[in-house]
Design brief:
By secondary structure, the protein is of the alpha/beta class. It contains 19 helices and 9 strands.
Length: 517
């Protein structure tokens, strides 16, 4: 008797399985720390044809390899390397639309000036885009109550409440940040009182196509407390850290019977993002969730003590795939800004030497004290502008070593510094895997929700060149088609004209890549 045909896999299930197969093939590259480049002979682990091609590649050619562009004059890559790069790009979730403005986000002319105070242009870009998505979710679900978890200084909550008129509860685990957020709210309200009734804010400071709408007088409610992923949805808060004087509200999801709520977290760190999804899945009062994750290296993984939940994997599908495990290094690598590093390569930035400096320093540290392996040196500011001896004299004392006792000008050190191009090439290869790891982590969360019957989607909401953690996981108990259909038009609206920084604002700056520690 013929066996019954196996059910077809969902595209997301197939993609997760394919990613795990590819990561398993390149596990040594995935788990490699670039600071071990010399100490552990990482270059020799690459296939010889890759070594020969990469050793002569200029930074712009490496940028083309990472971005999938033609290699340019002299760039002849082995077919196996091209296949690796093509597979990595094909399996990673799309991170944004091609084209668009190449400049960093500017002061948002469509964001009310009072909402731009204390908010950097990058964050203005993020809160406007996520705010528009949450407004669409509010309209689709009929919920005007939002719980912003991990609210920090309250920039998103302030925009949702004052700018969009939503009823917002801001939950923050650090009582000091919650206090800062309340102070910023009071500042804004004082300024509003000077202008009179809504609509009397006066003319905009600069001529612009469409002035921002008037602000509501209803601000967010701030709650100091940490999310307890294992608690029932009605009582999910723990005391803040550090403890604050304000009492902890036990149930910010509470409200009139039958009233729903939206939950969001903008760059909710580590296990906080999985906790939001777990509460959504088991909490009938939560109509929808919009989660933007960050700090994947802080996710808890197996093994854990009995009764403790893991942040990865969440889905039964991914947990059942052989080789799904992700090391700390793999998850940390997923937090790097690939698009920003491509820009450094294209411009042949002097900052490219930072990884080589740290790799040479690691070799000297281990030679001086074999018991020290990857100690936390922390970032040396403007390391690329220093000579290596200057850099080492700043870094060695941070790990308890005397620079005078370490040879900083030896021939061996000089020979390593001459291999900077190899360090840059090796690190570029590891970056090809970073979007794959992030895609797997987010697909695991999407599949977790699909397994429970929810409508969900991954959306590249922010410009990845300026906001590297730009994918938002949206889930609801109702269809999402109407919510997602107009996001492209919203993105077109967000092409801003620059305004000079105002009071309490910072000038735009490119997204910073993660520096070697």
């Amino acid at each position: 008797m013929a066996a019954a045909p196996r059910p077809a896999l969902q595209p997301e299930q197939q993609r997760a399985a394919d990613i795990i197969r590819l990561l398993s093939l390149y596990r040594p590259l995935l788990d490699a720390y670039v600071i071990d480049f010399f100490a552990e002979g990482l270059w020799a682990r690459l296939p010889p044809p890759w070594q020969a091609a990469l050793a002569t590649a200029a930074p712009p050619q490496l940028a083309s390899l990472l971005g999938g562009r033609p290699g340019g004059p002299g760039a002849t890559w082995p077919l196996s390397l091209l296949a690796f790069a093509a597979a990595a790009r094909a399996l990673a979730f799309p991170r944004g639309r091609p084209g668009g403005s190449p400049r960093p986000p500017c002061q948002s002319a469509r964001l009310h000036p009072l909402l731009r105070r204390h908010v950097k242009p990058k964050k203005q870009h993020e809160i406007r885009r996520l705010g528009k998505l949450l407004r669409r979710l509010s309209q689709a679900t009929g919920c005007d109550r939002v719980v912003d978890v991990g609210a920090g200084q309250g920039h998103l909550s302030r925009f949702l409440a004052f700018g969009l008129g939503l009823s917002v509860t801001a939950v923050e685990g650090d009582g000091r940040l919650a206090g800062v957020a309340e102070r910023f709210d009071r500042e804004l309200l004082r300024e509003l009182e000077k202008t009179g009734p809504p609509g009397n804010e006066g003319p905009p400071r600069r001529r612009q196509n469409r002035p921002p709408p008037p602000l509501s007088r209803r601000g967010p409610r701030h709650v100091a407390g940490r999310l307890d992923p294992g608690a029932p949805w009605g009582e999910f808060l723990l005391p803040p850290a550090p403890p604050g004087s304000a009492p902890v509200a036990r149930n910010p999801l509470g409200g009139p019977a039958g009233e729903g709520v939206l939950v969001t977290g903008l760059h909710a760190c580590g296990d906080l993002s999985p906790a939001l999804l777990r509460h959504f899945a088991r909490s009938p009062a939560v109509a929808a969730v919009a989660s933007v994750a960050c700090c994947h290296m802080k996710l808890s993984t197996s093994p854990q003590p009995p009764g403790c939940l893991v942040g990865y994997p969440l889905s039964a599908w991914v947990a059942g795939l052989p080789g799904h495990e992700l090391s700390y290094r793999a998850r940390e690598g997923a937090c790097h800004a690939l698009e920003e590093y491509v820009g450094r390569l294209d411009g042949e930035s002097g900052s490219l030497r930072a990884h080589c400096y740290r790799a040479v320093l690691e070799t000297l540290i281990r030679a001086a004290d074999p018991g020290k392996k990857r100690p936390g040196v922390q970032t040396v500011k403007k390391a690329h502008a220093l000579s290596f001896p200057q850099y080492a004299r700043l870094g060695l004392p941070r790990v308890g070593l005397d620079p005078a006792a370490v040879p900083l000008d030896s021939e061996a050190v000089g020979a390593m510094l001459e291999q900077q191009h190899k360090v840059v090439a090796f690190f570029s290869l590891t970056l090809l895997l970073a979007p794959l790891v992030e895609t797997l982590i987010l697909l695991d969360r999407l599949l977790y929700l699909r397994e429970r019957g929810f409508q969900c989607a991954l959306v590249p909401l922010f410009d990845p060149r300026f906001s590297p953690r730009n994918l938002v996981l949206v889930a609801a108990r109702t269809p999402l088609g109407a919510v997602l259909s107009g996001l492209d038009e919203d993105s077109d609206e967000d092409e801003e004209v620059a305004e000079p920084p105002g009071e309490g604002q910072s000038p735009p700056a490119p997204a910073a890549g993660r520096e070697p520690q």
